[in-house]
Design a protein that fits this description.
Blueprint lengths: L5 E10 L2 E11 L4 E5 L6 H9 L6 E6 L2 E2 L5 H6 L2 E3 L12 H12 L14 H13 L15 H13 L5 E5 L10 H9 L6 E5 L3 H7 L2 E6 L2 E6 L1 H6 L1 H8 L2
Parallel strand pairs: 3-8, 3-9, 6-7, 7-8
Antiparallel strand pairs: 1-2, 1-4, 4-5, 9-10
Length: about 250
């Protein structure tokens, strides 16, 4: 059996006397759609920050494709196939969507120091940018800036920039955060069109999205795994219902 795309083992994080991540184990394989849920303060974003290299763990290990990256930098993890989005939009609001995706492709291919080269001399890169944008149903927005787009579309641009890195593992930190309910279906449809072999870990408070999208759900409480299973198993779990789902 091939190595997991992402494997975290006994991951721990302490901030002084505060124990925020407690011996968390998690495996993510190619094609997985895993949701990470839990009440506020459960440690979800801390866990993603540990996976992506924003924070260093106090204990445990992190492997990407079988390689130990526990002490690797964020950039090194990106080069090894890990990409993420953030709760708060981090887009360049005055650059067109197409330009931003092209820049991400330049960075991925090591061309960022040769940006003086006209994009018109790199037709394959421009074609790739258009194809990626179109795959998320953003072709209508390609020549517009994020400042001109609805918030749900801005979230999709962030996903496009992450996908430009050709990740094997994509961490989505609350893609529905700030998105009006009327735009939720647009985000869900885009997530459902992500590459079939991409391993996706989703942090989300929108339970409708979680239960419609995820194949597996992990529930965190006080930094530890409270439960793990299919959406139906999580719905029926009495402890999860009492602690988080509230019914």
């Amino acid at each position: 059996m091939s190595a997991a795309a992402l494997h975290i083992h006994s991951l721990d994080k302490r901030f002084g006397g505060l124990h925020v991540t407690r011996a968390v184990d998690l495996r993510l394989h190619a094609g997985d759609r895993l949701a990470l849920i839990g009440p506020n303060g459960a440690g979800k974003t801390t866990l993603v920050n540990l996976m992506s290299g924003v924070l260093a763990p106090s204990g445990g290990s992190i492997h990407l494709g079988g390689e130990d990256v526990t002490r690797r930098s964020q950039a090194e993890r990106v080069r090894r196939g890990l990409a993420r989005t953030y709760q708060i939009t981090t887009l360049a609001m005055r650059l067109t969507v197409l330009h931003q995706v092209e820049m991400a492709l330049h960075e991925r291919d090591g061309l960022s120091r040769r940006m003086w080269r006209s994009i018109d001399r790199l037709p394959a890169l421009r074609d790739e940018a258009w194809a990626l944008i179109d795959s998320l149903n953003l072709a209508h927005a390609a020549l517009r800036t994020p400042a001109e787009l609805a918030y749900g579309e801005q979230r999709l641009v962030e996903i496009a920039l992450a996908l430009a890195l050709r990740p094997r593992v994509l961490l989505l930190d609350e893609p529905m955060a700030g998105v009006p309910q009327s735009e939720g279906a647009t985000v869900l449809a885009a997530l459902q069109r992500l590459p079939a072999d991409l391993a996706v870990l989703l942090i989300e408070h929108d339970m409708d999205l979680v239960f419609r999208y995820a194949q597996r759900i992990v529930v965190l409480a006080e930094g530890a795994v409270l439960a793990s299973g299919t959406p139906d198993e999580i719905r029926r779990d009495e402890q999860v219902r009492a602690v988080y789902l509230g019914h």
